[in-house]
Structure formats: C-alpha cells, structure tokens
C-alpha cells in the first residue's frame, strides 16, 4: 500500500462525513465529489465499505429516494453522533497537521 493510500485511509471517514454534512448524497455522487476536489484515488469501490461502516457505527443514516433518472437511490445524512464525530475529527486533524507541517518544513 502506498504512503498516499495509507494517509487517505486514515482521514477518509472525516472527508466522507464532511461531504455529507454539506448535503445529502448517494454513493456514486459522493465518490465524484471527492474526486472533484482532488482525491482521485477514491472510487465507488472504496466508498461503499466506508458508508456501510459509518452507517453501522451510527454516524450516518441512509434513506431511499426516487431518482429522476433510473432506479431509486440511497441518500446518506449525518446523525447527531456523526456531527459530533466530524467536529472531533476536525479538531484532532488541526492538532496533528500543524506540528507535522512544521516538522516537514524543516527538511
């Protein structure tokens, strides 16, 4: 596994929660949104296991809605616990990235 993949795996839950916090999305749409911001490594095959785990852990909930084109889609929403977890992830991320950036600048 590449360094990039390992780093992304560590923060992907937070990225997924951050997208869902902005608006309800379905799996493929979520994957495209992450790719559009530059996370090209995030495919549908990567997203669905993450969504399943987040839902199992009570951080998101799914709701089937009709689609204008094709079959119904499962849209995901943050739960209260999902909002709290995202806030914690953001806080922890900020505490980690500052010192790490400082160390890496010293090279």
Automatic annotation (TrEMBL):
Pfam families: PadR. Residues 16-87 form the Transcription regulator PadR N-terminal domain. InterPro entries: Metal_resp_DNA-bind_regulator, Tscrpt_reg_PadR_N, WH-like_DNA-bd_sf, WH_DNA-bd_sf. Signal peptide: none annotated. Transmembrane segments: none annotated. This is PadR family transcriptional regulator.
